[in-house]
Amino acid sequence: MSIRSSEYFIFNGVQSQSFGIFNVNISSGMLTESFTANKSIKEVKIRNNPTPYFMNTEYEKLSFNLSFGFDEKYDSEKIRNVARWLTSPTFYAPLQFSENFNRIFYVMFTDTSELIHNGLSQGYLNLNVVCDSPFSYSPVYNQIINLTSNVSEGTKIIVPNHGDFDNYPTLKIKVINGGSFSITNNSNGGEVLAFTGLANNETLTIDCQAQHIETDISHTYRFSNMTTNSKFLKLIRGNNHLNIKGNVEIFLSTQFKTIQG
Prior knowledge:
single chain; Jelly Rolls; globular; mainly beta; 2 domains; seven-stranded antiparallel β-sheet; Elongation Factor Tu (Ef-tu), domain 3
């Protein structure tokens, strides 16, 4: 979905209509916008060898320019309100466009910003946008998996990854009884995330991206309760066929990354 063809946008949870501004295109002819983030090649040159050794590739953070027009004449108060709204966040804030509100950029407005006008309090803003990464994101998807009366052979479920890259979800798992559970991803070579020696009614929070584990039992650490060869759950692109064993309640939360929306 196109950024340029979007009329309105939401920044940091606030709709642009509330400030009387909208997304505009200043140039004539066909619309032009970034297809993907820039990617550079990392190589090493050796003396007397004209052919460098390829190491890897590296994406740069996504950046692009935007122009916002005023639907009515502006005054100093409106300009100040817009400036506070767009520049006050000290973090990468979410930016969404009306063509596809399910595509989210986390951005800051940086570098040179301009107010172009005709001297009659009519005009538009030119702004530079820098994203937190080379990617855009989906909304956060949450899924509740209730297996409090699970069967011994486990229960098969499908968890999709609608993004363009592998995804590492956050799991909040309550162990009802039995002291153990396992999650096998049969779509990813049978990789297993498993724990043993847990307490009944204990809840683990597992951040698979950061490889961080917390328990609701104070002064207790659970890394040593991961079974040998356990791996943090990775969701490959497409449908992931999981087999879950143990009497558990699982709250799965994830956000997909896309290279182009």
